[in-house]
Write a structure and sequence with these properties.
- The protein is of the alpha+beta class.
- The chain has a 3-stranded antiparallel beta sheet with strand order 5-7-6, with helices on one face. A two-stranded antiparallel sheet has the order 1-2. It has a two-stranded antiparallel ribbon with strand order 3-4.
- A hairpin with a 7-residue loop joins strand 1 and strand 2.
- The longest helix has 13 residues.
């Protein structure tokens, strides 16, 4: 979580479910234990939980900085081979930057696990307003053009 990104308890279990024989760190793959530990981090002010009610947690900037300092790790170092190094900009984490950015209407949205019947109903309901395309794994995408643009170009 030291990258400042959102982490769910399940993602933490998946990413840390291995034991390093050269490490004294105790790893738990028990989801209830991970959720309890995350709540303790929130209670201690080290982590924050999503305000949407989702079980997603992250380190705020101060916790990220403290973790890197305490572990003597450079910000440019990848902590996980498949993840980017921590991204800090203008005195905030990448997530804090997104959270503080002004909101505006979106031009596209997608929904997962949508049946053909629902896809057809959505296409009918949004005809002339949005283009509805079916993607992989039962996902549909709705594209809403900017004012004046024609939906056929999406």
């Amino acid at each position: 979580m030291a990258d400042g990104q959102w982490w769910s308890p399940q993602k933490l279990v998946n990413m840390t479910s291995f034991n390093d024989p050269h490490s004294d760190v105790v790893i738990t793959s028990n989801l209830e234990d991970v959720e309890r530990i995350l709540q303790q981090l929130v209670d201690d002010g080290v982590a924050v939980r999503s305000e949407t009610g989702a079980k997603s947690y992250r380190y705020p900037l101060e916790s990220v900085k403290n973790w890197y300092f305490e572990n003597n790790i450079d910000y440019a170092q990848r902590l996980v081979a498949t993840n980017f190094p921590v991204r800090l900009f203008g005195g905030m984490t990448e997530v804090e930057g997104f959270l503080s950015a002004p909101l505006r209407e979106c031009a596209s949205i997608s929904f997962a696990n949508v049946s053909e019947r629902v896809t057809y109903a959505v296409r009918e309901a949004l005809a002339g307003v949005a283009v509805v395309r079916r993607g992989k794994t039962n996902r549909i995408f709705l594209f809403v053009p900017s004012r004046g643009a024609s939906p056929q170009y999406y």
